[in-house]
Amino acid sequence: MLTTNRSRLKQLQSAVSQGAKLLQHLLLDVVCDATCVVCRETLSTKQSGVCLECSQHFVSAPLPAELLKRVANEESGPLHTVCALYGLYPQAPFFEVLHAIKYHHTMDLAAEMGRRLGQFVRYSSRPVDGIIPIPLHPARRRERGYNQSECIANGIAEVLNAPVYCNVIRRARNNTTQTDLKHSDRKANVSGIFTLRSDASVPCGHMLVVDDVMTTGATILEAIRTMNCVSKDTIFSIGVLATTGKQ
Ligand SMILES: [Zn+2]
Q1: Which of 102, 121, 201, 214 could bridge across to 240 with cysteines, CB 3.0–4.6 Å?
Q2: pTM greater than the 0.85 cutoff
Q3: CA 217, CA 72: separation in Å to the nearest integer?
Q4: Under 8 Å CB-to-CB from 157, ≥6 apart: which residues?
């Protein structure tokens, strides 16, 4: 009983702290003019999160065919394409956007980037039947208050007019960050982190699996491998805002 109460208290504290953070960001938005997350200049009313000049400095990611060659393997199954908007390199200004999307409750910015990715997918891929965002572990989602991949997926959905499926897979393990791991260790670090939800099935057709960033692709491929185990009538593609390497 004591353990249950402690756990509820912890959840309540996390929710209150999350609510306070969100309120702070909303108030700042109301009190201050909206500014560009990269250069901090005031934005015009038509711009969302990033000014036009900073957007023009973002470097394009490698083309889908090259990314497909880079990440596809026998375990990934039928991958159709891999679409990424921007390339990441040391000190790339797009890191500021990713940071804001992940940690500063800039859900509008995530949706705006999702719309840009949606336009790119529309012209680079066969029609998409559904969008599956990579889930966060429930503890991390509680702490952050939202899943940035879901916000990106919602932006893509507006452009492609396709449904977003948030309940196909769940993150069963809160794995440590991939950033400092070697390629082989990254694969081991993500092995078995996703499970299928017992109350959901994998939709048929062409599914776009969405995340904010892709480095080796180990996390997204593990999600696709998990879904491939049960569905042979689904073809997957990958859509991310940014990836390492530039065009
Ligand atoms: Zn700017």
Answers
A1: 214
A2: no
A3: 9
A4: 114, 118, 131, 163, 164
pLDDT for position 177: 60
CA of 35 relative to ligand 1 center, distance in Å? 8
pLDDT digits (tens, 9 = 90+) for 138-183: 998 888 899 999 999 999 999 999 999 998 999 987 765 655 556 6
Q: Specify the CATH class of 57-244 in words.
A: alpha beta
170 — phi, psi (to 5°)? -130, 155
Residue type, 59: V
CB 182 within 8 A of CB 102: no
DSSP SS3 for 51: coil
Question: Residue 99 Cα, ligand 1 centroid: separation in angstroms?
Answer: 15
Distance 186 CA to ligand 1 centre (A): 34
- End-to-end CA distance of the chain: give it in Å, rounded: 57
Q: Which residues pair with 169 in a beta bridge?
A: 196
Please tell me the number of Cα atoms within 13 Å of 234 on its side-chain side. 23
Q: Could you tell me the distance, in angstroms and rounded to a whole number, from the CA of residue 56 to the centre of ligand 1?
A: 9
Query: Distance between CA atoms of 210 and 58, rounded to whole angstroms?
Result: 20
Position of tokens 């491939």? 228
Per-residue CA distances from 40 to 65, 99, 200 (Å): 35, 14, 43
* Domain spans, the chain: 57-244
CA-to-CA distance for 39 and 42, rounded, in angstroms? 9
